[in-house]
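Operator note (shift B, R.M.): manual run for LacI family transcriptional regulator requested after the automated queue skipped it. Running by hand, logging everything below so the morning shift can see what happened. Input copied straight from the record, untouched. If output looks odd, do not overwrite the archive copy; leave it for review.
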Amino acid sequence: MRRPTLEAVAARAGVSRATVSRVVNGQLTVTPQIREAVLRAVDELGYVPNSAARSLVTQRTGSIALVVSEPPTRVFSEDPMFATVIRSASLELEAADRQVVLMLAGSAKSHARIERYIAGGHVDGVMLISMHGADPLPAAIARMGVPVVSYGRPAVPVPLPYVDNDNVGGAEKAARHLLDRGRRRVATIAGPQDMIAGQDRLTGYRNALRDADRRSIVAVGDFTRESGAVAMRHLLEDDPALDAVFVANDLMAVGALQTLRQAGRRVPDDVAVVGFDDIEAARYTEPPLTTMRHPVVEQAAAMVRLLLGLFEGGPADPVILPTELVVRESG
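Run finished. Output pasted below as returned.
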């Protein structure tokens, strides 16, 4: 069975080939009545646009790169953040008739491959996730002139549009919640300090402790459950009298709860624990975890909308989403 052509659609709709082309390429210079007639003919004939030919006309591929600066072992791990961002961004792009190209930038070799792919014109724009320290990708992509946005404030001094949540304010609120509950020695398990989220949440904790004239007690993890367990052991060794801990993400908090249980510390009677993110597992820890809700789904969707807006000359202003304290039984 022959594939329906643009000419066949034009004949069925009673319009010119050029008019059909404008409709299928999303141009707005067609009246609603003609657009409806063309789309009805497309549906009746089962016409599927030739993506390669359409790209030549529109200079767009319909594809968006989602670049995650982590190795596969980290992306496809127990951390639900990556899956949630990828799923949410994909759904938002699908609603805009675009597709996502997932690219993992966990090594220098993969960085070079991704730069070549983007420079080759295979995608219309780029979304960056989980950037670390002096990552060269943001600056390299910005130099190409490809529209790019970041999930989270960039760690490098490159003027990229970004969508973030209020990490500093959320961490301050979490630490103050513990202080308001009468806790005297409030420690923190900070996130990696080559990431803005890790830096900002540590800043928020320190702001709250400084305002309360309390000493900061800090251990650093890498946003994994194992690092949270190890950091909690170090905190107990360094300050056995601590009675609360703010943990910079829920996955590390799960590890911290395990260490506290093994050490015979009751939560929250002996040590109160507050996390950050509000992942699904936070509701099922023992006891259920008090945490700061980080709107991951909304942040991913806002990132897509920001990028799509750039295609149309929209604003590149940062978007900051609020966090919310979710009080459960751990603190």
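Quick read of the result: The chain has 13 helices and twelve strands. The longest strand covers residues 63-68.
Leaving this for review. - R.M.
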